[in-house]
Amino acid sequence: MAVSNNITACVTLMALICAVPVIASGVWFASAQGEECARLARWPVAILGGLILLAALAGFVGAYWNRRRLLAFYLFAMASLIALLIALLVFAFAVTRGSGAYPVLGRAYDEYHLDGFSMWLRGYVSDDPARWERIKACLVVSDTCKKLARQAGFLTADQFYQSRLSPLQSGCCKPPAVCGFSYVSPTVWAAPAAHPAADADCGVWGNDPSQLCYECESCRAGLLAALRGQWHRANVALVVATVALVFLYLVGCSAYKNAQAEALFRRYKW
After folding, report:
1. Which end of the chain has fewer surrounding CB within 10 Å, N or C?
2. Which sequence ranges are marked TM in the entry (predicted)?
């Protein structure tokens, strides 16, 4: 192989390696959403990573055996896939910009409002009642609140208030602090004489394990906060992979041009 083809082969091999964290992020994100009972854009990242892997493999074969058409396909496909990956990252950062979290005096955990999230995320849990019914049914049988109820470390209200609850536990397993309920156990609360009229969630809470706050807006907000956290963790690996792929693509373009120039030189030399 020519020197430029050697460089291109190395570049495409490294692109193959860079596709692995993209696929891994997509698979992790899909499986993590299963734990949260949600199916929000589960597989696009993994599918995109698989396509990047196939394009890089075609580029490696083209560079190693000097197949110009495969190299040209690699450059075109990789440019398109990198553009899609960047668009996906921009979209993910845009729709997960707001956290919906707010601190509560005397509590170590945050509580959550739907108003703090983007309209696109709010639509996921509000626009389709049937979808939320499926999510709620999954949450009821999951360990989200059952695990909290089994924890023996919460002997007093102060111990519970200083615990680090997950967004789903904070939003779905207890009433909002504004409701003024008295702590009995992590998932059992005594109602006050009158509920604050300003928060509809106060009248929705029930101590029945199949009810709790699963119909509360705070539960929907807790779900979105959990999904938002997953997206942000996945985005770290995706940003690193994207930067590496862009750099490798530019090096590959330069090597491909040099290979074309070398081929023309050898052709006209004779």
Report:
1. C
2. 6-31, 43-65, 71-95, 234-252
